[in-house]
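Comment on this:
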Amino acid sequence: MLDTYLKECLYFTANRLGRVLTKMAEDEFASCGLSPNGAFLLMAVYEQEGITQKRLGEMLHLQPSTVTRLIEKMIGRGLIYNQTEGRLSRIYSTDKGRSLEAQIERCWDSLRERYGALLGVEYGDRITLELYEASDKLEGKRES
C-alpha cells in the first residue's frame, strides 16, 4: 500500500528525482570545484554582467538568503565581485571566474550526456521541459 502511495505522490517522486539529479550534478561540477548552483550562478553572470542579486535569485529560483550566501562564498573565492549602486547590488565575474567558463560548459554538457544516456536524449529533454512547466504552474506563473 505504501509503495503505491509513494509512486503516486508528486512530492515524494520529485524529491527522489531531485536527490538523484543533485548527486549527478555535484559529481559533474566537482571537476570545476563548484557546486551546481555556483556554476549556474556564474553562467548567469557570464550572460549578463552586472546582473542584480534579485534577478539572480529569480533566474535560479533561489531564496534571497541562499543567493546572498552563494554570492559571498563566490566573492571569497575571487570568482565574482559586486558593486553597489544605491540599493542595488550588481554582480560581475572576475578574470578568475571568467576562466572557468569553458570548464563549466563541459561539466554542463557532461551532466546532460550522463542523464541522456540513462533516460534517452529525447525523453530527457521532454521530461525537463514538462517539469519546468509543471513548476511554473505550481508557482502560479502560468495558467493551465
